[in-house]
Write a structure and sequence with these properties.
CATH class of the largest domain: Alpha Beta
Oligomer: single chain
Helix content: 25-40%
Number of helices: 11
CATH architecture of the largest domain: 3-Layer(aba) Sandwich
Shape: globular
CATH superfamily of the largest domain: P-loop containing nucleotide triphosphate hydrolases
Radius of gyration: 21 Å
Bound molecules: iron/sulfur cluster
Order of helices and strands: EEEHEEHEHHHHEHEHEEHHHEE
Number of domains: 2
Largest sheet: 8 strands, mixed
């Protein structure tokens, strides 16, 4: 059976400024199992990146804080570890993160080889020699499809796709058990996107890491993930296996809206069907369902009472009154 590497339970995160409190993550629970890929999908501002930053304790010091819940990596509560333990035992070694923009993730005045070497040296518990670490630098560069002789070059000498490969090489250098990839292909053109995704899949097979993939692209989720979560306004509104999410049937109205907004190449339409309206203001979240103002199925009850999660099968859950006990007589398309 797949082992649970990461377990997040009922996580709440707020950004506090002098003027207001932004409720960015509101009761998120999820599990990532070894060797599997979990996709988190949702529009900008849904809380995807904030959730992932909190796993590595990278929320902004002054404003971001976890106000509730637990994050455990292999039964270790991340927030009970000291800064030193986080740096030496978790970050980079057990959990690595690929950030959205490769242009700002790399140090412009260090060669790409030194940046990979630095990560290896920091986590060099086996006291490997410089030559051994250099050999590993060559190995990971080759692994991501960059000739080892280019390790003496600087980031500006690489294209966007190649820079992202370097970022992935740094993230994978220490063979982390969990790789968090925050929209790793957003800054890339489509052909390079496909190459980078294929490479991440190959690497997962070779290294056996679990991947937590954040994206707003349902195509990428279908291609890469075993399981998926749909986030909206800081909540998981639907979760399940890829089959649960992609098979037509019972779905959260927001998930249906996301699928409805994808262009269909087989039919000619003048305009796509967007989800009308905007996400609620996270400083003033409503009492009822957060999606109520945009939902074509909203009823009075939705505006007054927040829905509770309903399990439709062993893996498939939905946060919507239409699927709650007592409202099941409502027909679902
Ligand atoms: Fe729509 Fe009501 Fe379901 Fe919210 S609870 S998604 S408003 S039907």
């Amino acid at each position: 059976m797949d082992e649970i590497l990461l377990k997040i339970e009922d996580l709440f995160i707020e950004y506090q400024t002098e003027l207001e409190t932004v409720r960015a993550v509101n009761g998120v629970s999820l599990e990532v199992k070894s060797g599997r890929t979990l996709g988190i999908v949702g529009e900008t501002g849904a809380g995807k990146t904030t959730t992932c930053l909190s796993i590595l304790r990278l929320l902004p010091d002054r404003t971001g804080r976890v106000t509730g819940g637990n994050i455990c990596f292999r039964d270790k509560n991340i927030y009970s570890l000291s800064e030193e333990e986080m740096r030496t035992q978790i970050c980079g070694e057990k959990i690595s993160m690929i950030f959205q923009d490769p242009m700002t993730s790399l140090n412009p005045v260090m060669t790409v080889g030194s940046q990979i070497y630095e990560a290896l040296k920091y986590h060099n518990h086996e006291n490997k020699t410089r030559e051994e670490l250099e050999r590993r630098v060559d190995e990971v560069l080759e692994l991501v499809g960059i000739p080892a002789e280019r390790k003496t070059e600087y980031p500006h000498q690489f294209s966007g796709g190649m820079k992202q490969r370097v970022v992935i090489a740094i993230a994978l250098a220490c063979e982390p058990e969990l790789l968090i990839a925050d929209e790793p292909t957003t800054a890339l053109d489509v052909t390079v996107q496909a190459q980078v995704l294929a490479m991440m899949r190959d690497l997962q097979k070779k290294v056996g890491s679990a991947i937590l993939l954040i994206t707003h692209d349902l195509g990428v989720v279908a291609q890469m993930c075993d399981d998926a979560l749909v986030m909206y306004a800081g909540e998981i509104v639907e979760s399940g296996s890829i089959e649960d999410i992609f098979t037509p049937g019972s779905h959260h109205p927001y998930t249906m809206g996301l699928f409805g907004a994808i262009p269909d190449l087989d039919s000619a339409v003048d305009r796509l069907t967007p989800i009308e309206g905007l996400m609620p203001d996270p400083t003033k979240l409503p009492d009822g369902c957060y999606f109520a103002d945009r939902c074509p199925y909203a009823e009075e009850l939705c505006k007054q009472i927040h829905p509770t999660r309903t399990s439709l099968s062993g893996t498939h859950t939905i946060l919507c009154h239409r699927f709650s006990e007592g409202l099941k007589e409502v027909s679902h398309e």
